[in-house]
Design brief:
It is a single chain. This protein has 3 domains: 14-112, Phosphorylase Kinase, domain 1, CATH 3.30.200.20; 119-291, Orthogonal Bundle (Transferase(Phosphotransferase), domain 1), CATH 1.10.510.10; 303-354, no CATH class. The chain has 11 helices and 10 strands. The chain has helices spanning 2-14, 72-83, 119-128, 135-154, 211-227, 233-239, 243-255, 261-271, 282-286, 328-337, 351-354, and strands spanning 30-31, 34-42, 47-53, 59-66, 95-101, 104-112, 157-158, 167-168, 177-178, 185-186. The strands form 3 sheets. Strands 1-2-3-4-6-5 form a 6-stranded antiparallel β-sheet, with helices on one face. A two-stranded antiparallel sheet has the order 7-10. It has a two-stranded antiparallel sheet with strand order 8-9. Helix 4 (135-154) packs antiparallel against helix 5 (211-227) and helix 5 packs across helix 8. The longest helix has 20 residues, at 135-154.
């Protein structure tokens, strides 16, 4: 029965239009109001391009999904759902548009450009340099990823692909964002098998997904960050004859670093419970004494732009998190200064410029 669901889900995923491997977006090619600098990623369902805006000259990321009439509405609805998540630790979707040309028909999403790379690259750098992620820094990464996940789960959305490469980094840990919602679904959506193998929860083998699915992936991410080991924990735990002994082995992997302490190790182990209903929720994780030294970011908790009082997701100022750049009067100021008027961080402009 489980295998039947896997095969059905695979067919559903394969029915999505696939990018034409022969299509190349050359530098200086125009897509809407954006000029291609170079192609970053060729995925199974999308292309990711680094571009510059012809209007603001600001660097952005374009994510292109091949579309036909059957899937266009799906992408529009998923875009609207993700854009409704208003939180600094969740990537802002700046705009959407369609691009139809000899290159094909695409649904395009405009995303902020993050020069800090991603958590996967940071972990790889630590591994190559034979150094660990400092405990205080690791705690902040763990907390702010959880903070972003809470905002996602509060909207009854399951990300379904939490992994280090989908955590984009800013100038400091609290500026990180959860990205790539290509596999995200409402918690009550039909079953489907997606996600990256090393971070996929055991229940995802049968297509089941709840917020606990993201908690498992979060635990896999933490384990990799603390030990610098990339393993398929679901496979290892499911096949282990003595599951308690296997969990203790994972716990010891963390403790042998002599950096992170028992509370951190216990958090990771608790997220890797094979029973989804027995994993802690993200709410419970954020309230752990482990994170008591990290102050909640009340400064950016307001969900209204301080200039026009609109939803800041409609007027995104990133990566600093100060939602202040809205309205026609601000455009001239931003074009001249290019920095957040509160913290002076270089900013992405008001979304009204994009659309």
């Amino acid at each position: 029965m489980a295998m039947d669901i896997v095969l059905q889900s695979a067919r559903v995923v394969c029915n999505l239009p696939q990018p034409d491997p022969n299509v190349v977006f050359p530098p200086d090619y125009n897509i809407g109001n954006y000029i291609v600098e170079h192609e970053m990623v060729r995925g199974g369902q999308s292309r990711i391009l680094q571009c510059k805006s012809r209007i603001t000259n600001e660097r952005v990321i374009l994510k292109l999904f091949p579309i036909n009439n059957d899937v266009k509405q799906r992408y529009i609805e998923e875009y609207a759902a993700v854009r409704s998540i208003c939180h600094r630790n969740v990537i802002a979707l700046l705009a959407k548009f369609e691009h139809n040309s000899r290159m094909g028909n695409y649904f395009c999403i405009v995303l902020p450009y993050y020069a800090g790379g991603d958590l996967h690259t940071m972990i790889q750098s630590c591994r190559n340099g034979n150094r660990a992620v400092p405990c205080a820094e690791a705690l902040q990464y763990a907390y702010y990823i959880a903070s972003g996940l809470k905002a996602v789960h509060d909207k009854q959305i399951v990300h379904r692909d939490i992994k280090p490469s989908n955590i984009l980094l800013g100038n400091e840990p609290k500026m990180l964002v959860i990205s790539d919602f290509g596999y995200s679904k409402p918690s009550n959506a039909p079953p489907s098998v997606v996600g990256s193998q090393n971070y996929r929860s055991p229940e995802m083998i049968s297509g089941t997904h709840t917020s606990a699915t993201d908690v498992w992936s979060y635990g896999c991410l933490l384990y990799e960050m603390l030990t610098q080991k990339t393993v398929d924990l679901a496979f290892d735990l499911v096949r282990a004859e003595n599951k308690e002994a296997k969990l203790q082995e994972l716990r010891n992997d963390i403790l042998t670093q002599d950096l992170y302490g028992t509370e951190f190790a216990d958090l990771v182990v608790s997220t890797l419970n094979l029973k989804p209903e027995e994993r802690p929720t993200i709410d419970e994780i954020m309230k752990l004494p482990l994170f008591s030294g990290i102050e909640p970011d009340h400064e950016h908790a307001n969900e209204e732009c301080v200039i026009c009082l609109a939803n800041p997701r409609s007027h995104a100022c990133v990566p600093c998190g100060h939602k202040v750049l809205c309205g026609e009067d601000c455009v001239a100021m931003v074009m001249q200064m290019g920095r957040c008027p509160i913290c002076r961080t270089p900013v992405t402009h008001c979304m009204r410029i994009y659309e």
